[in-house]
Amino acid sequence: MRPWYAAARAMVKVVLRLCFRLRAEGVERVPSGGLLLVSNHASYLDPLAVGSVVPREIHYLARRSLFRGPMDGLLRSVNTIPTAREHPEPAALRKILELLASGQGVLIFPEGTRSADGKLQPAEPGAGFLAAQARVPILPVRIFGSFEALPRFSRFPRCVPIRVVIGSPYIPRQIERGESKKEYYRSLAEEMMARIGELR
Questions:
Q1: I need a surface site. Which of 19, 111, 139, 179 has the fewest CB within 10 A?
Q2: Could you tell me if 105 and 54 are in contact, meaning their C-beta atoms sit under 8 angstroms apart?
Q3: Residue 39 main-chain phi, psi, to 5 deg
Q4: Are the C-beta atoms of 103 and 55 separated by less than 8 Å?
Q5: DSSP-based three-state secondary structure for 86
Q6: Is the pLDDT of residue 85 over 90?
């Protein structure tokens, strides 16, 4: 882990623990090597919560409009990749695949955007496409409390406990004979959300 990333991660972790009593379960299940972390998404706090508890350096996606002025350099320095608001752009997808192939970890939110009600939403097929192309272990993660702490349409956070539960890594299945790629990608994306939903 690079010194700057480690320092930024530690600072975020302290703040989240003080403000939201952040705690994590299953940290020991995080493997080394190329890894696609998949999590539910209900708040701007989600990438901070996951990144601060995962014991390795990982990469993130963020909407391109955030990369302005000083924020551009700051976000890039902590491994944040700019992309379109709803769906990763081709350049971002290529970057993710390159990172995964080189043994890095990448966090994505299969739902594509923050949940409006805190409940799990259907996954975007693009998440399945990414998993099929990368062929690396997938690590399901579920965040509890972030919606209550900072929901989508709120401007100010509330000091509500946040808990991050990390599941067991799994390898996505191969495409079956007679199965269309569209069906295959959708099923991989649905499995991500199913495994996230199993975490308690």
A1: 179
A2: yes
A3: -140, 155
A4: no
A5: coil
A6: no
Question: What is the C-alpha to C-alpha distance for residues 67 and 62, in angstroms, rounded to an integer?
Answer: 9
Phi, psi of 38 (to 5 degrees): -125, 130
Q: CA-CA distances (angstroms) from residue 116 to 4, 66, 150, 184? A: 34, 20, 11, 27
Residue-wise pLDDT for 144-163, tens only, equals 999 999 998 898 999 999 99
This model's pTM is above 0.85: yes
Residue 46 parent element (H or E): helix 46-53
Residue 53: both structure tokens together: 């508890």
Q: What is the pLDDT of residues 21-55, one digit of tens each?
A: 999 999 999 999 999 999 999 999 999 999 999 99
Q: Other CB atoms closer than 10 Å to residue 66's CB: what's the count?
A: 13
Amino acid at position 1, single letter: M
Question: What is the C-alpha separation between 129 and 137, in angstroms, rounded?
Answer: 14
